[in-house]
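Here is a tokenized protein:
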Amino acid sequence: MSSSARPPGRSTLARSKSLRLPRPTAQPQSKDDLAQPEGGCQLRRHGSMRAIGGGAPAAMSASYHGSLQSEPQPARKPQPESARKVQLPPQQPGRSKPRPESKPTFAASATGKSSPEEDEAPMKEHFARLVQEHDRLQVKYGRLRAHLVERECRREQQLQQQPGPKGPLAPIPEDEADSPDGELPPCVRDSPLLMGLHLEAQRLQQELRRAQRAYWDLVLGSDSGDDSAEVVVDLLSQLEKRDTELSRARGRCERLSEALAQSEREVAACRDALHDYQLQMEAQRAAHEAQRSHVHDLQVQLGEAREGCEFLQAERATLAEAQLESEAEMRRLRGLLEAALETSRILYQRCAKLFAKCQQKSVRLSQLESQLECQRPIAEATASSGQALAQLSAKLQAFLKTSVLFAASHLQLDSEGTFKPAKTARGSSFRLSPA
């Protein structure tokens, strides 16, 4: 399709985007449409029309945070043949992907308690970064769109001035990724609900991007202004539906936030219970330490008791040896005692015999005493005769001495110094030794 056959009103709609599009009476209007001024219209990320003050460049992006609920896709109107033939040009080699911002690592203390605000902080920071990146890319996207529209306008004017066939208007290339989704915070990756919400948002972003691409292809490549207006109105209705989905997704997010807050309250209660359990564990640990010290004391006492038992066993062995020696000594002493008893028995028998003899002797003595009493006068007479005999003996001794002296002086002595006097009348002889 050549640009020369395109009406001027259509070109103005495609390039300036300042005309207010007609709205059907049956089409419901959103809050953003009711608040739209007469200055101009612009597509925003929620799919509705809004005015930008100060002549800001048109900004469009498909980055927004969708929901887990998917609505049935509305039936699209058949595109004209020229719009289907338009192909997107390849990406410009000089364009580079937006550098994802460095995400801080969220470290949670293993022992401390985290409040619900601290748990929501990573999600809030990630959401704020996504919104900021979305706005920046939206502005960049609008500038590129405005630049391409102006360039195509100048090119169309040049083609109108030059004779010859006119080429079709080149489609506007889409921008690259809207948000740095390469890295997600651990809280989003670990939560299945948030991960599903993120995937649903990506799906809705892709659908919105395709709708925007189809819108711009139809706006830049359609022949009649009425068809483009109908297509734009259809796309706006689809964007309104996406806005409804977004509101539902926001409600879903609010419910998930409430569920998350409830979960955080439950986690806080669990942490309180865990703290109580830790206190109980500390008390049990202290009791265990006390029991362990008591067991240690008992083990020390048991060791001392074992040492005492070993000492008593040694003493018992010593006493057993002493008992054996005592038994041997007792047997020896018992033998001696038996011998002494035998000797005592013999002596007792002898004493009994001697006692009997003593009794007999006492009887004999009494008899002798009686006899002595009878013989006492005779003894007295014998004593007087004994005295006379003693006197006679003394006289005889004196005579003998004189005889000896006479014999020694007048008679011869024998070789032994003795002499043999003459026999007496009784025939006895005396042998006297020299004095």
About this structure: The CA atoms of residues 46 and 244 lie 9 Å apart. Residues 1-113, 165-181, 413-435 have pLDDT under 50 and may be disordered. The longest helix spans residues 225-410. The beta strands are 42-43, 49-50.
